[in-house]
């Protein structure tokens, strides 16, 4: 039975997370609707990356509810969460540096869920990915370790897309990359949103978020400080000095 039409693509309620004995998240709640782009913003150490890892089951966590399009994922291992339809691009990218661009993409395609499923996102053939990220087309035979940080970031996103996710988690996609690459990333993320893909973007770069996202959540010291329309973020964070 299919979930109701208004079911969130991602529902997080009361999320807590730990690194060892250190508690990092304190009851975080957020949602991402189908086809929506949502920003998770805050300074370094606020808990943004931990939130992404907690959704993927990469750190110890518990929640009142953690669901992908109505399906509870709180007890699932990371590989099962990914196979259900979540793509994850971590801050450190984790591309294979000793493989070429093409080989990295082909390796990602091998992980596509057998038989598909209701949460299969759009298919991204290699040439479609090269159209989305033109820089990669010119670098298709280059080793990952010989690419710039921005080029590696594009490859990491492209590799996640070949798994046909319905929801893409992006952790600091603009971190440490040149402004011209950030602009290209903004264009690509806008195209992904237009394709119907749901996005949760962890960022400090509010310009990128403003260009792509519908709504934002502000996190500070592992707690939610503000949520609302992306257009209201600047006026909201200034008095709170979230980035000060």
From TrEMBL:
CDD domains: ABC_TM1139_LivF_branched. PROSITE patterns: ABC_TRANSPORTER_1 (PS00211), ABC_TRANSPORTER_2 (PS50893). One of its GO terms (biological process) is L-amino acid transport. Residues 10-244 form the ABC transporter domain. It comes from the Bacteria. Keywords: Amino-acid transport, ATP-binding, Nucleotide-binding, Transport. PANTHER family: ABC TRANSPORTER ATP-BINDING PROTEIN, HIGH-AFFINITY BRANCHED-CHAIN AMINO ACID TRANSPORT ATP-BINDING PROTEIN LIVF. Belongs to the ABC transporter superfamily. This is ABC transporter related protein. It comes from Ancylobacter novellus (strain ATCC 8093 / DSM 506 / JCM 20403 / CCM 1077 / IAM 12100 / NBRC 12443 / NCIMB 10456).
């Amino acid at each position: 039975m299919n979930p109701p039409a208004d079911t969130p693509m991602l529902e997080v309620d009361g999320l807590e997370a730990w690194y060892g004995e250190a508690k990092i998240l304190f009851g975080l709640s957020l949602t991402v609707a189908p086809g929506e782009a949502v920003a998770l913003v805050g300074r370094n150490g606020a808990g943004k990356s931990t939130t992404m890892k907690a959704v993927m089951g990469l750190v110890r966590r518990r929640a009142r509810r953690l669901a992908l399009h109505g399906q509870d994922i709180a007890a699932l291992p990371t590989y099962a969460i990914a196979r259900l339809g979540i793509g994850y691009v971590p801050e450190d990218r984790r591309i294979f540096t000793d493989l070429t661009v093409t080989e990295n993409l082909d390796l990602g395609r091998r992980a596509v869920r057998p038989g598909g499923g209701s949460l299969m996102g759009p298919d991204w053939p290699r040439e479609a990915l090269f159209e989305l990220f033109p820089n990669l087309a010119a670098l298709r035979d280059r080793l990952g370790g010989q690419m710039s940080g921005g080029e590696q970031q594009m490859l990491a996103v492209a590799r996640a897309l070949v798994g046909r996710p319905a929801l893409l988690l992006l952790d600091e996609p603009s971190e440490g990359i040149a402004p011209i690459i950030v602009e290209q990333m903004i264009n690509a993320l806008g195209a992904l949103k237009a394709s119907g893909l749901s996005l949760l973007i962890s960022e400090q770069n509010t310009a990128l978020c403003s260009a792509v996202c519908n709504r934002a959540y502000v996190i500070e010291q592992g707690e939610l400080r503000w949520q609302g329309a992306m257009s209201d973020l600047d006026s909201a964070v200034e008095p709170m000095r979230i980035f000060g």
